[in-house]
Amino acid sequence: MTTSLPTIAPYAMPRAGDLPVERVHWTLDPDRAVLLVHDMQRYFLAPFARDSEPFSVLVPHVAALLAAARAAGVPVVYTAQPGEQPPEDRALLNDFWGAGPAAAYREDPAIVDILDELAPQPGDEVLTKWRYSAFARSPLAERLTGWGRDQLLVTGIYAHIGCMVTAVDAFMRDVQPFLVADALGDFSRDRHDQALEWTAQRCGTVSTAAEVLEALAVARSGVTAS
Questions:
Q1: Confidence (pLDDT) at 221
Q2: Among 48-62, 77-91, 148-162, which stretch is predicted with the lowest mean pLDDT?
Q3: What 3-state class would DSSP assign to 180?
Q4: pLDDT at 157 over 90
Q5: Which helix or strand (DSSP H or E) is residue 176 part of?
Q6: Which residues, in sequence order, are CB contacts of 115 under 8 Å at separation 6+?
C-alpha cells in the first residue's frame, strides 16, 4: 500500500510547442467558462522544489489566471481536501494513498490551506474534495448549471490524477474541459504529458496560460476577436 506522496524531481513545464495534437478545437468563451483551481494546498505542493519548474511556473501562471478571471467576471472555484478524513469517507483512497493529509494535519492544521499566493478571495467558491474528480460528492455541477456555464478551465495538481479525471467527468456532463497545460503540476513530466495527451485525444482541449489570458483580456476589453 502506498501511504505517502512521492518525491517529485524538477522537470521542465510544457511549452506551446510541446502540446499534443487535438481532436477538437473549442474556443474559450469567458461568458461560458469557470476557472477551477484544483487542490493547490500546501500538503500536495510540499514535494515540489519551489525554486524550480514546474512549481516556479505553475504558481505564477495560476495566480495570473486567477486575477484575469476575476477581472473578466469568470467564476472561480477551488477544491481542497479536508485535514480530517474518517476512513469511511476516504474509503478506497486508503488503499492507494493511506490516510492522506491526516497525520500532517494533526501536527500543522495549516498544511491543508491553499497556497498563500493563490488564496481564495471574496466571491470565490471553495469545495471540499473527496475523490479524484472535483464533481464527486460536491455541488460543482449544480454551480455550473446555476451560473449558466458549460466550459471548465482546469488548473492545479496533479495533472494525471484529479485534473484529468475532473476533465473526463466534465466531458461526461456535457461541459467542455480545457486543461491549461502550463498551469498544472504532476509527479513527473511523463505523467504531465500523459494527462495532456489523453485529454486532447479523448475528452477535451489543451491550452496554454498565455492563450487563456489573451481570451480573458479580450473579454475585459470588449473587443470581438477576429
A1: 66
A2: 77-91
A3: strand
A4: yes
A5: strand 176-185
A6: 40, 41, 42, 45, 59
List Cβ neighbours of 88 (8 Å cut-off, separation of 6 or more).
none
What pLDDT digit, counting tens, does each position of 53-70 carry?
999 999 999 999 999 999
Q: What residue type is assigned to position 202 of the chain?
A: R
Query: How many other β-carbons are positioned within 10 Å of the β-carbon of residue 2?
Result: 9
Average pLDDT over residues 9-37: 96
Tell me if residue 39 is catalytic. yes
Angstrom distance (rounded) from CA 61 to CA 182: 7
**What rounded mean pLDDT belongs to the chain?**
93
3-state secondary structure of 199: helix
H helix or E strand, kind and range, residue 88: helix 87-90
Q: How many CB atoms lie within 10 A of CB 10?
A: 14
Determine the Cα–Cα distance for residues 106 and 194; give it in Å rounded to an integer: 34
Asked if 150 and 144 touch (Cβ cutoff 8 Å), the reply is: yes
Contacts (Cβ under 8 Å, ≥6 apart) of 139: 127
Segment 187-195 shows an average pLDDT of 98
The cell for 216 is: 480573458
Name which of 21, 8, 41, 51 is nearest 118 in CA terms: 41
Q: Considering the candidates 39, 169, 186, 193, report the single residue annotated as catalytic.
A: 39
Cis peptide before 20 (omega within 30 of 0): no
Distance of CA 74 to the CA centre of its chain: 15
Which residue from 141, 135, 138, 189 is spatially nearest to 162, judged by alpha carbons?
135
